[in-house]
């Protein structure tokens, strides 16, 4: 605005073009912010399907995928497969945390434990989760145990490495401060080491969960008795492309929901409120 | 008996590359009486912070003794409270959580803890900030909190490691003034490390001047200035200038950042 306008901040917004104002309001809305980026993606998908340029045996449009979704829900397959997948994930992640958290802190805090286990950690981390499946199937058959083992395996390593990194990044001075305020070893651990390493531990959990989720789908494809991964592979065999697409979408949506509903709020409630994120960004 | 005694303290490092032994502290001996404010002053890198870290129990020494009330000390302990240059506040605890940390470690009941905390926060001028987190405070306020956290714990001796070095000059003056008032009110025993000559003279009952590495005690100066002290009156006192000039000469002209400020 180049005209001489008296300072009237309350009126100023009225001069902003209506469209842009609408855009600002809309963009500020959480639903628009979350789903907005998917709109062009959906449009392109729909357009490609509508032109019919791709053979329908290899490609399904949004409409067909939606149809097979409602159909599978009605038949009860979708809820039951989803439940199976989530149950396996919960078992795997639960045991993964149970094993990875204490083990991670032991390796992080004890220098001899670290020296002893570090080569092992790197060695076993290099064996891809799926590479365990052949021998697991020999040992445990096509069972929940096999799938759980794979998920636990994929969760534990990023978690442990995250904890080691997190403990290393706790400032020495904070430990010194606590000790000269009268804290013993145990108190230092719970009052300084644990909260101080939490940002890195949280991102370790996040990475572990992400890997675990992928491992689960892969294991379901191979072990294949039920679950989303099984559904996708089974649909391929039957030539139901729309169900394959549907499976992929369900995977994405589920992970997004898990992240948005559980992981992100947890990080916000702790790490961000303590100003740790800001500190870490400043240190970078 | 002195509250803190440092006898023939020596510290050597082993250089990991050459394997050479490098002396950091040649020989340091001095003591601090009960309720006395003693500053340790020296050129940058002379090892004054190393002396403090040894007294705090954060690092080992090669030879000599550190005695608190005649008893040899090893490792950190609540009898020696430390105020850090970097504040070292717990970022995940509120102001109240930080102040009451030491009392919690001692097992003091909650009600008493919070009463003591309220008194101390009042003393350092942080009343009303109990629920804030350290990152929400200014640098000066953070260091007030660092001071309060140690004061409330009533250590035998307070170790202060260049606590105002990272704070802007204006705020630093105010903090020095406030620290003097708190000291005069409560009379804790203070071991204060600084490279700022004016600060050392203004705050202290005695100033221990260290030589360059490997550090030895070059001189111990009794600061005979009346208390209560205020910056305005103290800088006018000709004896204040005499002390600072004397120390500057002793340190070889003084450092650029050790001027009045």
TrEMBL record, chain A:
Membrane topology: Multi-pass membrane protein
Keywords: Cell membrane, Membrane, Transmembrane, Transmembrane helix, Transport
GO cellular component annotations of the record: plasma membrane
GO terms under biological process: transmembrane transport
Location of the ABC transmembrane type-1 domain: 82-262
Pfam assignment, any one: BPD_transp_1
InterPro entries reported for this sequence: MetI-like (IPR000515), MetI-like_sf (IPR035906)
Residue intervals passing through the bilayer: 38-60, 89-109, 121-142, 148-167, 188-205, 211-233, 245-266
Keyword Ligase (UniProt): no
Cellular compartment(s): Cell membrane
Main location per the UniProt record: membrane
Similarity annotation: Belongs to the binding-protein-dependent transport system permease family.
This protein's name: NitT/TauT family transport system permease protein/taurine transport system permease protein
Organism annotation: Nocardioides albus
From TrEMBL, chain B:
SUPFAM superfamilies for the chain: P-loop containing nucleoside triphosphate hydrolases
InterPro entries: AAA+_ATPase (IPR003593), ABC_transporter-like_ATP-bd (IPR003439), ABC_transporter-like_CS (IPR017871), ABC_transporter_ATP-bind (IPR050166), P-loop_NTPase (IPR027417)
GO MF terms held by the record: ATP binding; ATP hydrolysis activity
Transmembrane segments: none
Residue ranges constituting the ABC transporter domain according to the UniProt record: 4-237
Keywords: ATP-binding, Nucleotide-binding, Transport
Keyword Nucleotide-binding: yes
Pfam families: ABC_tran (PF00005)
The keyword Nucleotide-binding belongs to this UniProt entry's keyword annotation: yes
Ranges in a coiled coil: none
PANTHER family, alphabetized: ALIPHATIC SULFONATES IMPORT ATP-BINDING PROTEIN SSUB, TAURINE IMPORT ATP-BINDING PROTEIN-RELATED
Annotated protein name in UniProt: NitT/TauT family transport system ATP-binding protein
